[in-house]
Each structure stands twice: as C-alpha cells, then as structure tokens.
Design goal:
Blueprint (H helix, E strand, L loop, with lengths): L11 H7 L6 E5 L13 H17 L2 E2 L22 H17 L5 E5 L5 H15 L4 E4 L4 H5 L17 H10 L44 H22 L2
Parallel strand pairs: 1-2, 1-3, 3-4
Helix pairs in contact: 2-6, 2-7, 3-4, 6-7
The structure holds zinc ion.
Amino acid sequence: MDERIMYDRMTWPEAKERIPKAKAVIVSLGSVEEHGYHLPLCTDNVLGSTLAAGIAERTNSLLLPVMPFGQVWSTRDFPGSISLSEETMVRVLTDVALSLRHHGARNIIFHSGHMGNQSAMKAAARRLYDRYDMKNVWYFCYTDYVKLSEGIMEAPLWRGSGMHAAEIETSMMLAAAPEFCHMERAVSDYPEGCEEMNYRCMPWTEFTQTGALGDPTVSTAEKGRVYTEKLIEHMSDIINRLLE
Ligand SMILES: [Zn+2]
C-alpha cells in the first residue's frame, strides 16, 4: 500500500496542503461481527480497509483509518458482535464529514466493508445534504458485487444476494489475510424458510446456526485476488468519472 494515502499519517501542515488537493477523503467503515465458524470478527474491517486503500490509490484520495464498529443488528446475538445503533452511526458520520468540510475536503466518500452500514451512510448523506447543503458526499459498499462475481465465483449466492462469510468474503480474506482464516472449520450453509425476513425484522440467530450464508468451502485466494481487483477497479472508475 502507498503510505501517502494514509490520512492520519500526515502532519497538520501536510494535511492543510493535501486535503484540498485530494479528489476525496474516504471515510472507511467496517464492523466487529461474527463471520461463521472460520473467519474472524474483524473480517469487514480487513476487507473494507483493503478495498478502500485500493480505491484511494487509484483516485488520488486520502484514506481515514477504518471505524471499527458498525450497525450489526442482524448478527448482534452471536458471541462477539458489537452493534452501534443507526442513530449513533449517523451522528458520527455527520460529525466526521463536517470536520472534513472544515478542512477543505472537495468530496467525502463513505466506504463500507459491511453491508449493514449502508442505510446509515445514506441517512448521514441526506442529513448533510439537507442541513448543511453538502452535495459532495458519496457512498459505496460492494458496488455491483453480484454482477462482478459472475465468471469468478462458483457457488450460488444465498437467496440470490447473500454472501456473508461465504465464497466471496472468504476468498477475499484468503487473499488479504490468509493467516486469519480457519478453512478446516468452514461449512456450507443455505438456511431455508426465511421468507419472513422480507416482512419483519429477523436476527440471524433465528435461522442460522453457523452464521455463514452460502458456501465458503469452495473459496480460494486466487478467486479473492481477482475479485478484489475487479471491485476496486469498478468503484474507482465510477469515482474518477463522477467526482470533480
Ligand atoms: Zn462481512
């Protein structure tokens, strides 16, 4: 990783000069959350940081250190998960964005390695738009990840879109941090009878024992490398196309 993208390694005179010149400052989000029997609680922090660093390098942006806690309502009952309320997330994101505006950031990107943060990112962006007239706040989270997985991943996604601790995430972790993976403990799990979750809130402990949704057993580091690269390239292309 190019050290020069790291926001918090700058001195204040460097920050004064470089923040207004960067295309964007990336506010990196993750979570401390269960990821099945075989991946660690830090999975979203590792993957979110990896993706955000790749994006920062390709878009002339600065990267803040990952905010390690997220909104993990769905998995909060699994041992170890730490859950922030959406309101807390929105307030933190709003305050961080206002600080960045104060220091001259041209654009602010909320980037999450955890899907559960998406509604908080959008709510914060709306608040910044409405209360502070900020139209330069963007949000990205595994953008178009289903389409990008075609031709790389093999196992079906759970209910067409689920990937939690399954082939995609596990492959990415095998590429990014193999020392954290316990593949001998990985099991395939496609819970059924979850139609209710479309119509009411269901903590995942109501329908899965493993905490993995899909098949992590077919994951490989090579799939993870190719897929991670594709995701970074895709999100960077959008940012370079749309942001001034
Ligand atoms: Zn995850």
